[in-house]
Design goal:
The protein is α+β, with helices and mostly antiparallel strands and about 200 residues long. It has seven helices and five strands, in the order H-E-H-E-H-H-E-H-H-E-H-E.
Amino acid sequence: MAAPANAQSLIELLKNRRSYYPLSKELAISKERIQEIVKDALLHVPSSFNSQSNRVVVLFGDEHDKFWDITIETLKAIVPEDKWEHTAQRTSWFKGAAGTILFFEDQTVVESMQKNVPLYADKFPIWALQSDAMLQHTLWVALEAEGLGANLQHYNPLVDEKVAAQWSLPANWKLNAQLVFGGKTAEAGAKEYMPIEDRYKVFGA
């Protein structure tokens, strides 16, 4: 039986989650373990009406490199030449990592929920994004807890068509984000926080 957890244990994990750049191709845990974490999170992260609209693709090794080659090629065609050096550096960091998790939303599920529960039709796309965001954060925290570094990127919709074609993905899978992961090569940068008093109110306590 697993040891009992408490809220502070979770808070400490949340505090430790940071964006790390650049990352290496060294993995502190096995690819099998990473897949277990992803599948468990995908199963248990909540969704509105238990609609389960989240979809995930995990890319390792050469497949990870292919995604970033697609991204670099796409960006090269649209980024001005005088801005390319910065873009090239960042995308080379991402390609230099060990893997990428692609987060998708199944539009067929969302549209079905809109049809079946019309009262909330305008809310289901928002709720689907919220569920996807919870999954992204859960996996980011979980990988950090296992000793990996990660950072979250958003090169959609620029790469959507090429990604779908490369991995023969269903047309109804809409790409939302990319979580890049790998070995940490440096400490995370300093992070500033707004005063909590400006962000928090309580009544009746």
